[in-house]
Write a structure and sequence with these properties.
Length: about 400
């Protein structure tokens, strides 16, 4: 029968490669973030520039064709400042080509009209350096939103992968060190198992879900401004892209429900009576909530699963399960603090212990639910189940 094994040494090379792979993505995010900050700072500084009449001498619209047409407005103009005649060529805050909105088409039409009829236009001149001027100093929020998408997608992915690799390396290193110190006591390889107080898995899931929800919505919020004008012009492909911010709304609802459950039941822990569940004996303890659970009974399940990874295909197989219906001992006094749910399961003698085995990983899960009609109580814990120590 397969036995629980000491975890493999930290995969330093693999985690290092993952960190290196993440650096270019993080760098793109940092660069685009710098562009956003620089644009906002320049816009703010330009608010003190002096408005001055200008004569448009040239206005052109450059069109480049590739996967799609991109546009760039170029112009030349003359103005007088400080008693000297000067020339300028800067049109807007962004100097590159793009196809975000109709800024370039609109600006070109306006400048071309002033060039044709000879009417003065206006420019803004830096009073400290009169050779610096610009025709349009307003922010293009659609471009800021476009930059933000790169900041959040590339930067978010890159930094999440880089920091995740660092934290995973540290966690693996600590786990391997504990395995060396306590080779015959694998329930001491995790801090919560060693303390006999196991945190509910939903606590970690709520943090991950909330962080992902924030990231996703920050990434897709600009689409609420970018896509409607495209749809109004008859670009119905943009309509399907509205699914992305729609998913963001669904994630918000899911996060709110998880937050309500977190606030309603407070902290949930499984306090093990003995340091571990023992194969051939029992797993016993108490599930404790910091706030009362208003139901008459609980459905408690102890579940053993084997997770198999083969040829990059993950599969979870249920090996064994046992279910119990436990009356709520605090049913008559729901307002008096939290709830304690006693747990006691017999673990079959032919069971596999928690941990890595030749064909994958054995995972033991304790799951508890109620029939609350508003926010259903549902909590689970990953529990240590091992053979008796000799």
């Amino acid at each position: 029968m397969a036995k629980s094994r000491i975890p493999k040494p930290p995969k330093v090379l693999g985690l290092g490669c993952a960190a290196l792979f993440a650096i270019p993505f993080a760098a793109v995010g940092v660069f685009m973030g710098w562009m956003v900050v620089a644009t906002l700072a320049e816009h703010r500084a330009m608010q003190r520039w002096v408005e001055t009449p200008a004569v448009i001498t040239r206005a052109d619209l450059q069109v480049q064709h590739g996967d799609g047409a991109t546009y760039k407005t170029t112009a030349e103009y003359q103005y007088e400042f400080g008693g000297q005649k000067r020339q300028g060529a800067r049109v807007g805050l962004s100097s590159g080509s793009d196809n975000i909105g109709d800024f370039h088409q609109r600006v070109h039409a306006e400048l071309k009209a002033h060039q044709t009829n000879g009417q003065p236009f206006r420019c803004f001149v830096n009073p400290d350096r009169p050779d610096q001027s610009i025709l349009y100093r307003d922010l293009r929020w659609e471009m800021i939103a476009f930059y933000d998408i790169f900041v959040l997608t590339f930067g978010g992915f890159g930094w999440a992968m880089f920091l995740g690799s660092v934290f995973a390396w540290r966690a693996e290193r600590r786990r391997a060190a504990l395995a060396v110190d306590y080779p015959d006591q694998p329930w001491l390889w995790r801090d919560d198992w060693a303390a006999n107080e196991i945190e509910a898995t939903h606590k970690n899931w709520f943090s991950v879900t909330a962080a992902f929800t924030l990231f996703w919505n920050l990434m897709t919020v600009p689409l609420w401004w970018l896509l409607p004008p495209q749809i109004a012009r008859g670009n119905y492909t943009a309509f399907w892209a509205m699914i992305l911010p729609g998913i963001g709304l669904i994630l918000i609802v899911v996060s709110i429900r998880m937050l309500l459950r977190e606030r309603k039941y407070g902290r949930c822990i499984f306090r093990i009576t003995v340091p571990q569940g023992v194969i051939g004996s029992e797993l016993s303890g108490v599930i404790e909530t910091s706030r009362p659970v208003e139901c008459d009974q609980f459905q408690v399940v102890l579940l053993c699963q084997r997770k198999v990874t083969k040829d990059e295909d993950n599969k979870t197989i249920e090996v064994w399960r046992s279910e119990q219906t436990v009356p709520n001992p605090q049913a008559a006094s729901w307002g008096d603090g939290g709830t304690s749910i006693p747990v006691q399961f017999e673990v079959p003698a032919n069971s596999r212990p928690t941990g890595e085995v030749d064909d994958g990983t054995i995972l033991w899960t304790l799951r508890t639910t109620s029939a609350d009609s508003s926010v259903r109580f549902k909590v689970e814990f990953h529990v240590p189940v091992f053979r008796p120590s000799v």
